[in-house]
Amino acid sequence: MLNHAAFPRRCGGRFLAAAVAVALLVPGASPSSAQTAEEGRALYLEGDCDGALAILRPLAEAGDANAQNVMGAAYDDGCGVEVDHAQTLDWWRKAADQGFARAQFNLGWFWEQGFEGFPVDYLQARDWYLKAAEQDYPEAMTNLGRLYADGRLTEGSDYEQARAYYIRGRKLGSAQSITNLADLMREGRGAPADLEAALRLYGEAAAMGLPIALNNLGAMYENGMGTEADPVTAFYLYRLAQDAGYAHASINLAWLVAFETDAHFYDPPYGHALCQYGVAQATGESAAAYAADCAEIDKWLTPEQIDEGQALFESWD
Questions:
Q1: In the CATH hierarchy, which fold is given to the domain comprising 136-245?
Q2: In the chain, ranges of CATH 1.25.40.10 domains
Q3: Which of 47, 122, 167, 201 would you call most buried, defined as having the most Cβ atoms within 10 angstroms of its Cβ?
Q4: Secondary structure of 210-243 in HEC code, one letter for each residue
Q5: Residues in a beta bridge with 115
């Protein structure tokens, strides 16, 4: 098979997702107000922005940290309000100052990303992540580890610190920490590579349903890393990752089905279709990289195979 980038070009990144995916009760909040804030949060996650804000705004103004955290997310996402990062910062700061770990984590993410008028500040990001980490917030460990691995806080990468935070995140059940720890072991960053350990860790995170871990475990099996090469297992792991919305898995599937001639799934037109699907699901730099993969695959396909694959892809719309 032709070589391709089976693993993602960069792991980690934004863990905010829906910004309120974990709700913590606020010390001092009454059970009734906490429940009401949870009702507003549930509406927010369902996409009912107006309904959510009708519940959450008065609670937030009255000092409910859970509601304040979601209000910050609403201004970040533009859910029921215009995007306003000054308001995002204000609401998250109110919640974080009450010790609300999710908001502390979100503030770390805010300063790590940076926005117009709010330039990237890795030291502030670290400080807020540390506050959340002190409360055993799992993804704060993940993001702290990544900042050290990427050399954002030190002169060059500090893999020892990164590894320590990923291990803490793993103990707290963070699938992304487990995956990032596996990345270090697979690539031999900070210590000799240990492919068998990486394989086990990817399997652990994949069992938790993390799409990137499913993809990376598939890549290990496809390439015989830490185990014997097993394209069939790789195929099904990539399919699981694709079904979970992970675009890179579609590209890996495309390579596999287009060139694994001895496998039951060998189907070059299907490979073209899968690759186009992956490009359509991707954004930014990833989309451009995936398009280059598709062009490379198409070099080895006949015009008839490409036309058949394109028709298949368009039928999926």
A1: 1.25.40
A2: 136-245
A3: 201
A4: CHHHHHHHHHHHHHCCCCCCCHHHHHHHHHHHHH
A5: 118
